[in-house]
């Protein structure tokens, strides 16, 4: 029974992660806007994912223990490029990508660097959620933010007990997105 539940949790999390950012990417493309999406939040989230992936690769952990991270990173990069595109500043993506690529190599220069970064990754991920919340509170408009993406993210955090803090923050962002959702009738 316990092995079956563990199997379900692992594979359902992987399946959700495989499509996690797709509703957000679709919402952005459909709206042709990045309104409501916090660039600092997205950059922090991507940094946290990259740190976690680098740590796993550095120590040679089995791929199935972190397979969702390359998938999430690819989706975040697409989302980031969409944000830059819809904000009209695609050229600003280049320095960020250069920092992320160089960080990949710098983290592995010393064991203590990758260990320190990993210890800070939960803080980095939490900061990304707070940045999104702060942005939503500031603009009071969830715009092109996908509540489905944030809800799916909350699900993955509920499955993975080490992300309990992220669960609460994802639920908070989801609630804030829904609170500031403008209906068609209300906008007119």
**Main β sheet profile:** none
* Unreliable stretches: none
Helical content band: over 70%
SSE arrangement, N to C? HHHHHHHHH
- Mean pLDDT comes to 88
Oligomer: single chain
- Class per helix and strand makeup: mainly alpha
What Rg is obtained from the alpha carbons, in whole angstroms?
17 Å
Distance between the termini: 53 Å
Number of helices: 9
Measured by DSSP, the beta-strand proportion falls in under 5%
Number of strands: 0
Dominant shape: globular
Structure explained in plain terms:
- With 188 residues, this protein is an all-alpha fold.
- Helix content is 76%, strand content 0%.
- It has helices at residues 2-19, 22-31, 39-58, 68-86, 93-106, 111-139, 147-159, 164-179, 184-187.
- Helix 2 (22-31) packs parallel to helix 4 (68-86) and helix 7 (147-159) runs antiparallel to helix 8.
- The longest helix has 29 residues, at 111-139.
- The radius of gyration is 17 Å and the shape is globular.
- It starts with a helix and ends with a helix.
Short synopsis of the structure:
Helix content is 76%, strand content 0%. The protein has helices at residues 2-19, 22-31, 39-58, 68-86, 93-106, 111-139, 147-159, 164-179, 184-187.
What topology does this entry show?
Elements: H1 2-19, H2 22-31, H3 39-58, H4 68-86, H5 93-106, H6 111-139, H7 147-159, H8 164-179, H9 184-187
Helix pairs in contact: 1-4, 1-7, 2-4, 3-4, 3-6, 6-8, 7-8
């Amino acid at each position: 029974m316990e092995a079956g539940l563990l199997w379900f949790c692992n594979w359902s999390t992987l399946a959700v992660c495989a499509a996690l950012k797709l509703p957000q990417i679709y919402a952005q493309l459909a709206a042709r806007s990045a309104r409501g999406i916090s660039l600092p939040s997205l950059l922090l989230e991507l940094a946290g994912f990259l740190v976690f992936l680098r740590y796993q690769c550095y120590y040679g952990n089995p791929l199935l223990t972190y397979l969702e991270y390359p998938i999430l990173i690819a989706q975040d990069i697409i989302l980031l490029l969409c944000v830059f595109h819809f904000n009209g500043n695609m050229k600003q993506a280049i320095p960020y990508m250069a920092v992320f690529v160089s960080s990949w190599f710098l983290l592995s220069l010393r064991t203590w660097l990758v260990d320190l970064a990993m210890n800070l990754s939960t803080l980095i991920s939490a900061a990304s959620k707070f940045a999104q919340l702060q942005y939503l509170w500031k603009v009071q408009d969830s715009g092109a933010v996908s509540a489905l993406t944030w809800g799916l993210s909350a699900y993955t955090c509920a499955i993975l007990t080490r992300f309990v803090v992220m669960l609460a923050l994802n639920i908070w962002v989801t609630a804030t997105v829904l609170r500031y959702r403008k209906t068609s009738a209300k906008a007119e």
